[in-house]
Amino acid sequence: MTQTFSSTGRDTFVGRPHSRVDGPAKATGLAKYAGEFNAPDLSHGYVVSSAIAKGRIVAIDTAAAEAVPGVIRVFTHENRPRTAWLDYNYQDAVAPPGSPFRPLYDDTIAYSGQPVALVVAEDFDTARHAATLVRVDYEAEAPETDPSKLLDLAYDPPKKRSGIKPPPKPWGDASAAYDAAPIKLREEYRLAVEHHNPMEPHASTVVYEGDGTYTVYDKIQGVSNSQGYLTGVFGLKKDDVRVMNPYLGGGFGAGLRPQYQLFLAMLAARELKRSVRVVLTRDQMFSFTYRPDALQTVSLGSDRDGALQSLRHDAVGATSRFEDYQEVVVNWSAVLYGCENVALSYKLAQVDTFSPGDMRAPGAVTGVFAIETAMDELAYATGLDPIALRLKNYSESDATAEGKPFGSKALKACFTQGADRFGWDRRNPEPRSMREGKELVGWGMATGVWESMMMQSSARAALTADGRLEVGNSTGDLGTGTYTILTQIAADTLGLTMEDVTTKLGDTRLAEAPVAGGSWTAASSGTAVMKACRNVGEQVFKLARQMEGSPLANVDFERVAFTDGRIEVAGDPGRSVSLVDAMRAAGVESVEATESAGPDTDFNAKYEAYTHSAVFVEVKIDEELGQVRLTRVVSAIAAGKILNPKTARSQIIGGVVMGIGSALEEESMMDHRLGRFMNHNLGEYHVPVSADIHDIDVIFVDEEDKANPLGVKGLGEIGIVGTAAAVANAVYHATGKRIRHLPITIDKIL
Ligand code: MOS
Questions:
Q1: Where are the chain's structural domains?
Q2: Which of 18, 213, 390, 732 lies 20 to 30 Å from 101, alpha-carbon distance?
Q3: Distance 136 CA to ligand 1 centre (A)
Q4: Which whole number is the average pLDDT over 203-222?
């Protein structure tokens, strides 16, 4: 029998909307973030950032800074304590191959904004002021930060990044088929470099405990990663470093890897033997990870009915000089569309910046923008409706994985239900054919896709004799609802109320779990919590069976259900024992279990798992001003079981808004002469604000999947994927202008 998460078979909480259990703590300010924890001996670090992008430090003069009253120490590469980098081979859990950046290591400058000094003072303002007095003399070289200048040097990643599938070998003969195809198009696509800009800046508070141990509050999507970094780099023992991060103000991938403020805060705390906090400024948030530029070419050849004859997708993505950052950019084209002749390639070009990193749906945002814009172009070239073209080439199996079938793929339902809700059948396909007053109206659509993954995770559950359950593990809640869904799963598994359950996350003393990322947290931590609760339930059941005159004597565990705080014989509510009575009768104060859950290897041997979406967008564009208003979005999502429709809807809305940002606004502008991102603040790096966002309608289509016992596929990324292409396609429909380089700004429309 397939085990469902709820042994009652009744979903009391799972599958129903529930507000975030952490909402009140956040709304009242009780929720504390990494830069808000205090210690009596707290000192404050302020980072001095490199003014050049490439070269070396010739001299660094800290005397004036050190002379400021209240300044405790200025750390540079010249006086860096030798306690760091005891494990020279440190690699974090989500790092690409290469040599991770080492702050204050030597005089080399590898990128603009690189930390060159840390000023530690009694208070923040003193540290900030003194930091302006640190004088750095550089010997500068000309940086190269434009990957389009480096195409001749593009190379195949020498080492594969763990978890990232390289493009499959080509099949058929894509170029011959392209030449022979009656309809063909070949275009270049590009998106802007984007920075994550979570609301909470990166921050670390290292509390010096006086006995050689440290309590660290770090802005990270998984505390185990920070702990691994600190133990590896500083030669500390796991027990000596407790890392916590109960709340995150967003991450979008910027918090997957430990960043330099963590290193600097620990370095200073160890040396000064006191607590240190380092908070990065918003402009320093532009001095590390970002979504890389990628130059893409898509070539499509089809017959006159729109059946693809040739599919080629080539990409060159930017990386740094010290790491081969890789993401899946081109594979999506062949995941989405069936074709006999396919060639996919992905290469890297090294620029003089920090290493790019994963940013919400890394690679998919990039590659799907290209293929889904190209498919819209093919729809016009063949005269087919964009949905009809997609259905004509609909893939029934994953060609990038030797043709393995999808465990589930309800994308057709996304097309149907999304189109229906949007009113797609009222669309006149002719560009510039729909208008309202002085505004051109455009309707566009696109498909989204993301891999559904699961990671080995553990979780602990503990039920006490007062009927309260605590569950949790070390993963982070990005703010998206992990606390809430885990509470729902735990409550249902043991038949308790939401109020009976406390979920704890973000603490290395809890059961070990990976970073929250990749849309894998619901499946991974959710299954682990369910298993741990199930284990606790079985232990209490055994106690209940031993009670004198137990109504459960001689009943098998498989036959009982947990409901209303009781264990009852399924279908016979008269025969039951309360959990609390069972524990009290046995004189047991607490029943605990830790369980681990990981990918289902049998399932994965047979099936591939992806989430899908169909995104429909309406734009209204002022014909004279070129100003785009995005008036309506319908996003229809196939992502397996939806644990909580309320937090799930918010996840998708967030993804869609971020997709709107990448389509219309977000752009980190590099001055290639200086090798520096110039708009490193939220005044000049534009993200959508409330006034930019109108109707966003989210549909979850029914989809049953068996990749994990919960049937969930994850929602963190799918909302953003495809959104930018849908916007670009709507802009084309409105204006007749095909814009292949994001963001779509007024200058490109007019
Ligand atoms: Mo996400 S880019 O895996 O945080």
A1: 23-31+456-598, 402-453+601-750
A2: 213
A3: 35
A4: 97
Vertex 282: Cα angle to 278 and 285 (nearest 5): 75
CA distances from residue 500 to 465, 469, 470, 471, 565 in whole angstroms, order as listed: 12, 6, 8, 11, 9
Instruction: Please give the C-alpha separations between residue 118 and each of 104, 115, 140, 694, in angstroms, as whole numbers.
Output: 9, 8, 21, 44
Phi/psi of residue 420, nearest 5 degrees: -65, -50
Report CA(680)–ligand 1 centroid distance (Å): 21
**Closest by Cα among 445, 431, 422, 457 to 368:** 445
Residue 465 CA, distance from chain mean position: 38
Same fold, 23-31+456-598 and 402-453+601-750: yes
> In the sheet where 590-597 sits, what is the strand order?
501-505, 469-473, 457-464, 590-597
pLDDT at 7 over 90: no
pLDDT at 92: 86
| Ligand 1-lining residues (CB < 6 angstroms) | 221, 251-253, 256, 358-360, 362, 517-518
Dihedral of alpha carbons 735, 739, 742, 746, sign:
negative
Q: Which residues contact 45 (CB under 8 A, 6 or more apart)?
A: 118, 119, 120, 127, 261, 264, 265, 268, 276, 277, 278
Q: Which CATH number fits domain 23-31+456-598: 3.20.20.10, 3.40.50.970, 3.30.365.10, 3.40.50.2300?
A: 3.30.365.10
- pLDDT(9) > 80: no
Ligand 1 centroid distance, CA of 416 (Å): 29
Peptide bond just before 743 cis, omega within 30 deg: yes
Write the CB contacts of 750 (distance below 8 Å, at least 6 apart in sequence): 626
Residue 521 banded pLDDT, cuts 50, 70, 90 = very high
Q: What is the pLDDT of residues 302-348, one digit of tens each?
A: 999 999 999 999 999 999 999 999 999 999 999 999 999 999 999 99
Residues annotated as catalytic (active site), given as ranges: 717
Partnered with residue 44 across adjacent β-strands are: 121, 277
Task: Report the 10 Å Cβ neighbour count for 629.
Answer: 15
Give the pLDDT confidence of 560-596 residue by residue, as tens digits. Answer: 999 999 999 998 989 999 999 999 999 999 999 999 9
CA of 446 to the centre of ligand 1 (A): 22
CA-nearest residue, atom 4 of ligand 1: 253
Quick one: which atom of ligand 1 is closest to the CA of 358? 2
Q: What CATH number was assigned to the domain covering residues 402-453+601-750?
A: 3.30.365.10
Residue with tokens 């589930």: 408
Check the CA dihedral 487-492-493-496 and report its sign. positive
DSSP state of 171: B
* Residue % of the chain over a pLDDT of 90: 96
CA of 68 to the centre of ligand 1 (A): 41
| Residue 254 alpha carbon to ligand 1 centre in Å | 8
Integer Rg of the chain from CA: 27
Please state which of the ranges 66-80, 85-99, 636-650 shows the lowest mean pLDDT.
85-99
Which single residue is written with the structure tokens 């109504």? 551
Alpha-helix runs per DSSP H in 116-258: 124-131, 174-180, 223-234
In ligand 1, the atom with minimum distance to the C-alpha of 516 is 4
**Beta-strand pair 214-218/203-208:** antiparallel
Quote the pTM value.
0.97
Per-residue pLDDT, averaged over 683-689, amounts to 97
Q: What is the average per-residue pLDDT within 80-95?
A: 82
User: Which pLDDT belongs to residue 581?
Assistant: 98
Tokens of 481: 């609802």
- Indicate the top mutation candidate among 358, 450, 718 to test ligand 1's pocket, ranked by most ligand atoms within 8 A of CB: 358
Please identify, by atom number, the ligand 1 atom nearest to the C-alpha of residue 517. 3
pLDDT at 89 over 90: no
CA of 47 to the centre of ligand 1 (A): 26
